[in-house]
Amino acid sequence: MNLVRMKKLIFIAVLLIETVTANAQNKVGQLSVAPTIGINYSKANIRDPRQKYVPGLWAGVNAEYGLTEEFGASVGLFYSRLGSKHDEAGSGQIKLTYIAMPILINYYLWKGLAIKAGVEPAYLTKATDEAEGGEDAISIKKDCKLFDLAIPVGVSYEIANIVVDMRYIHGTQRVNKVGQPIKMKHRFQVSAAYKFKF
Hints:
Blueprint: H1 3-21, E1 31-43, E2 54-66, E3 71-87, E4 91-100, E5 103-110, E6 113-131, E7 138-139, E8 147-159, E9 162-171, E10 186-194, E11 196-197
Antiparallel strand pairs: 1-2, 1-10, 1-11, 2-3, 3-4, 3-5, 4-6, 5-6, 6-7, 6-8, 8-9, 9-10
């Protein structure tokens, strides 16, 4: 392949990338709404090698407003399933279901590429302790605090209105009311969304 042809191919590739990512630039005053679905990976902070990460559904909608070309503010409303596997007197897991509202500031480093941080208040709707396979589920909601507050930080990339998001979420509140404090301290989240812009 000669040099002229290689330059033409590189030019075409750059042009295509620019065309695809042009819509990903944050616009001042623009509102976007993004239905989102993803997975939480979480476990309790108890220092016990028998505690294991478990996956849980993360689904809802997120709205973002462009403050400047570099900054956007977003708020969401999500169904969030957290949990932790344990092995005390038999294998089982704790499952916690929340309605979460992440509030984030997004900083766009480059077209479509953003880093983000904020707070995530959440309300507990269901809490169970169950044996492996979902058998003998026991409600433990009365023993749990209803309010949770976490600190999410992450990165996202948008291309052709599709947003892929990865976050680490640090839990700050204890789950249980009494006894040894249990926190869903370390959570990892991966999600995908489609952004509708107005």
